[in-house]
Amino acid sequence: MALYSEKVMDHFRNPRNVGVIEDADGIGEVGNAKCGDIMKMYLKIEDDTVQDVKFETFGCGSAIASSSMATELIKGKPVSEAMKLTNKAVAEALDGLPAYKMHCSVLAEEAIQSALEDYYTKHPEKRPPAEEK
Amino acid sequence: MRIYADNAATTKMSRTAIDAMMHCMEEEFGNPSSLYSIGQQAKEVLEQAREDVAAVIHAEPREILFTSGGSEADNQAIRSAAEIGKKEGKRHIISTAFEHHAVLHTLKRLEAEGYEVTLLDVHEDGLVRVEEVEAAIREDTCLVTIMFANNEIGTIQPIREIGAVCRKHGVLFHTDAVQAMGHLPIDVKADNIDMLSASAHKFHGPKGVGFLYARKGIRLTNLIEGGAQEHGKRAGTENVAAIAGMAAALKEAAANMQENAAHMTAMRDRLIKGLQEIPHSALNGDARRRLPGNVNFCFEGIEGESLLLLLDDKGICASSGSACTSGSLDPSHVLLAIGRVHDVAHGSLRLSIGENVTEEEIDYLIANVKEVVQYLRGFSPVWRDLMSGKATFIL
Predict the structure, then answer these.
(1) Separation CA A13–CA A4 (nearest Å)
(2) Which residues pair with A27 in a beta bridge?
(3) Distance from CA of A131 to the nearest CA of B (A)
(4) DSSP 8-state secondary structure symbol assigned to residue A124
(5) Which residue from A101, A118, B222, B273 has the fewest beta carbons nearer than 10 Å?
(6) Which of the 8 DSSP states describes residue B181?
(7) In the structure, what pLDDT confidence band is assigned to residue A131 with cuts at 50, 70 and 90?
(8) Alpha helix locations (H) across A14-86?
(9) Rounded to two decimals, what is the model's pTM?
């Protein structure tokens, strides 16, 4: 049995949306090199929609695949939807991750959250009213 | 091209070893403990294997105990020394921080049982200092256990000198020679070794078999109780075929050792030279005092598992000390022991080449590692920060 699903290997070998957005509206970076995973997400937001997203990742195969999949899941989507992306959705879209690699999908979720938070900090008027938990 | 460059993990069985095993399985199926001729024939095969193994390391046949592999041999050697020590009121053991887990975990267990363990520093070059061994020896030291050559970074320890110091102070000396056996000349008498562990599958023998050398007079403690096999020190019907395969492989490795080592050393150094051209990389472990087949590098700004997966796509089998390849959160304890910080230890690569590696294959390894490292750095945020000056290069 292979370590990863075909989907993970596809996103690892051919990561989507790799790179940097120079004039990004929101940038998020999570993880640390000490633990062996860092993800950085760049968002371009127009009309409350994620017009473009790019990522850079230092990490294992599943970290790279999770970043790639997360960018695919939010690209072109309304910000409100991107906000709701969960690590579970990322892992499921990848046809699953080994249990000890689930934290990679968590990191992807957090990277996007962090980039959106950066966007809202820069554009406080866009921040939606706080929802009940 | 397909290159198996993970010979420190395991090796492909040699034709000689396979033939020896096949012969055993087909013709020598008897139980060596049976008195009739078929059993006695198997017994002869077993004792011939013992003689062959003993001869290679300059031991006596009765000093060789067949085990299920290196881990069992390590466990039994350390347990035995601990038992001997306990009888004399000695409960202190000296080892190093970068031993194999078969040693480290056994020591942990002994610590819980009241033993005291001193782990020596292995310095940045991955070499134990003999004077530090001597300085660590106390009145109550019952064992010094230091590996012959490290499994990850390949550094070869000053075994003979350490053994001499142990002799001088009357302390038992065990060495885990799993990586060295069949690759380096070992003479247990001249090297002052009291106990030694080895594993067949690291020198083109089968998996699941190894041996423990214990100098005569050392009372071993059983890990497995039962029948009287192996002088009553390791119960269970012997795996005759595997033992015969191991002996055949070891004899062959010993016969070709000089020639193999010369070729592999030349190939190793070519590989090291090629990989050193990668900026912000570093060889792990001393460049000279290392196994002929071992190359281990850290590349800054990338993570080891993704490196291995991409190399696999190019037909290259290698290994890494990255946390992600171990299933734990920490990178290799060996790399940490030689002072590599987490950030760069995650980006390590071990290539352990075989006897038949060619210059063409070495060049293929160099070209592909270079390409993959450059590719991964291309979208690594760590690398970006290093290049922009936001972070400082370590290597």
Answers:
(1) 12
(2) A42
(3) 33
(4) G
(5) B273
(6) T
(7) low
(8) 61-74, 79-82
(9) 0.95
Q: Does B28 touch chain A (CB under 8 A)?
A: no
One-letter amino acid of B16: T
DSSP A74-94: HTTSBHHHHTT--HHHHHHHT
Q: Are B180 and B155 in contact (CB under 8 A)?
A: no
Residue B35 CB: number of other CB atoms within 10 A? Answer: 8
Long-range residue pairs from A40-45, CB within 8 A, at least 24 positions apart, any chain: A40/A111, A40/B381, A41/A67, A41/A70, A41/A71, A41/A111, A41/A112, A41/A114, A41/A115, A42/A115, A43/A112, A43/A115, A43/A116, A43/A119, A45/A79, A45/A119
Given a contact cutoff of 8 angstroms between Cβ atoms, the answer to whether B148 and B156 are in contact is: yes
Catalytic residues of B: 324
10-residue mean pLDDT profile of chain B (395 residues): values are 97 98 96 97 98 98 98 98 98 98 98 98 98 98 98 98 98 98 98 98 98 98 97 97 98 98 98 98 98 98 96 97 73 96 95 98 98 98 97 95
**Which chain B residues have a beta carbon less than 8 Å from that of A12?**
306, 309
- The one-letter amino acid at B180: A
Assign B68 to helix, strand or coil: coil
The answer to whether A29 contacts B381, with C-beta atoms less than 8 Å apart, is yes
Residue B264 burial by Cβ neighbours in a 10 Å radius (0-12, 13-18, 19+): buried
Exposure string of A95-104, with b = 16+ CB inside 10 Å and e = fewer, is eebeeebbbb
Tell me, what amino acid is at B166?
C
Q: Determine contact, residues A58/A37, Cβ cutoff 8 Å.
A: yes
Q: Please state at what angle helix B240-255 crosses helix B15-27, rounded to 10 degrees.
A: 150
Which of B298, B300, B302, B306 best probes binding to A when mutated, by most A CB atoms within 10 angstroms? B306
- Residues 6 or more apart whose CB falls under 8 angstroms from that of B391 comprise B382, B385
b or e along B289-301 (b: 16 or more beta carbons within 10 Å of the residue's beta carbon)? ebbbbbbbbbbbb
Give the integer Cα–Cα distance in Å for B156 and B294: 11
